[in-house]
Fold this protein.
Amino acid sequence: TLLNVVRMRYADAPVFLEIASIINSYSVAGKASAAATLPSRTDPNVFNLGTEGTWSNTPTVTYQPVLGDRFTKSMLQPVPPIAIFQLLQGGWPPEIVLPTVVGSINELRNTYAGVGADPGFRQLVESLSRIQRAGGLGIRIEPRKDGSAIVIVLRQNGKEAGLADDARQVHALLGLEAGIHEFDIAYGLVPRNRREVAVLSRSMLDVMLQLGFGVDLPAEHAKEGRALPGRATAGEAKAEQLVHIRSGTQAPADAYTAVPYKGYWYWIDDTDIASKRAFTFLLILFSLAETGQSVAVPIVTVPSR
């Protein structure tokens, strides 16, 4: 996954693989020997004892590329808005979920290609984070005549200090109707009315592309124009990086994950908790992007002899 993130920053095609089968074979063997001889002048030993043992493990993992319709549905389709808010309700903080998966919400634009987000988007994330910690954020699926609707619930009263102020700020930032605490969620750029939250979510490829702007490009590659340009290395945009991917000529001694590419090493430092958490969240997003199609289940074979 890290290699694909780096490749996309360099405008190279990513390659996705899935495990088709796992075959593991173990073998254990042993031998013992003993012999008795008459002593002689050259060899006074009477008894000779010997032991021998062998153990081998030969795993075979078969990979196959993700292509065609499965690639389109899992990598190119946007993450469903319901999945985004289910992650929030499941405890994932808005400061990770929204900057990673959301491109815009009610026309508040997120960071894109290293360019900083709208100030209102950052304020929205901060307010929703405080509301979530106060237990004031919920979601439910409501059946209707034209199908099911996703409803987000914002609690505006409680013992928590500032909860009502944060709820009012969310209303103002999203242009929602005052005094209403339940709103429909839809995929799109512009809401149809003041009781709807329009979420323009990203696809998995888009998420990985945005993570790529957190790569510290080698000065030589940046000067030669080998990678996509971006403003993620300066000023405010650097503070909004989703992950910090370091680079260097030598392999790192203490890394969460590292890959070599184009003569350099790229890694996430094992002490960078924020980047590790964001990268782990990316791996969880891959499971949300699954299409539900039946695939060959990995097989584990352990022969007995």
Q: What stands out?
A: Residues 232-237, 291-295 have pLDDT under 50 and may be disordered. Residues 273-288 form the longest helix (16 residues).
